[in-house]
Amino acid sequence: MTAFKTRTLTQIDIAGLALPNRLAVAPMTRVSASETGDATAAMAHYYERFAKGGFGLVITEGLYTDQQYSQGYRYQPGMTDEQQASTWRPVVERIHAHQGAVFAQLMHAGALSQGNRFKRETAAPSAVRPKGEQMPFYHGDGRYAEPKSMTDEDIADAITGFANAAKRAMQVAGFDGIEIHGANGYLLDQFLTDYSNQRSDRWGGSTERRVQLTLEVVKAVRAKVGDVPLGVRISQGKVNDFGHKWAGGERDAEAIFGSLRDVGVDFIHVTEHEAWQPAFSSSTASLVQLARRYAPGALLIANGGLQDVQRADSVLDKGADMVALGKAALANPDYPRRLASQKALAPFDPAILGPIANIKDTELAL
Hints:
By secondary structure, the chain is of the alpha/beta class. The chain has one domain: TIM Barrel, CATH 3.20.20.70. Helix content is about 35%, strand content about 15%. It has an eight-stranded parallel beta barrel with strand order 3-4-5-8-9-10-11-12, surrounded by six helices. A two-stranded antiparallel sheet has the order 1-2. The protein is globular. The two termini are about 30 Å apart.
């Protein structure tokens, strides 16, 4: 009988952090923190299952970064002060107990905020109402509010918020690394997106200028945390504009991924609906392949429809270094162990994320 082989179960290193395999849990919003943004015992158990199940890396849901405009949802966890940070230490320790690693994903919701206990208004690069409607499974209702256009002071505060939150995550909570959320329509992606960023100052205009806020956040975080694994999550699509594509096509990919390479990120987390598909109609290359082309030194994490191991191996062969799983991990918190033993995978049950996307008792029983 031929031995089962897959690159997903081989070892990998991220900026000096050794991981037993190339499988990560993708960040997924679960709105299960306390009303004041503290991590809970249920969250500790929820995250521990993934490390116990063999995932080499767990990336948390987005943690809001400041007590101004960053919070996106009710019951979203935060990293805005030492109290919130300290509640993550038990989560981190339970993951470490199973030889897993965990990165904190830091997030500013910007115009997509639909539940902020600190501010009644929202803030964004420009006063442009977001497309679509708020997400009911995250306690949202109705259209998004029209945001205020951020001042230079607001932007400086947002950068500082990311940096200070990263320092707390590393020094107080004990995380192994930091992922900056630059994807899916949230603040940094709003600055990157042409129609939501109508500024004429240093933060708007060309793609090279619209990506500057992400780069400034990377530099500010690096200055606070030093030589730890640090990366950025990037996407084209958004939670409120699923099919969005960069208007400049491959030229935009070169500008974005090239600038991330130049600023010295350790990894880039590329997420698409189907990670293997061509990024643009004018090219056969996927976004992962374009990231590899224009950021050759960065480790690449691919996310999007990769629960099939043959598909995942194919994406690894075409440029990715790791694969991040979302729904497949929810259905199979022991996915790596199932893969190694060739045990059948359980199908994803949409009820896990509905009617509210909070952690269910059925999950905690796994």
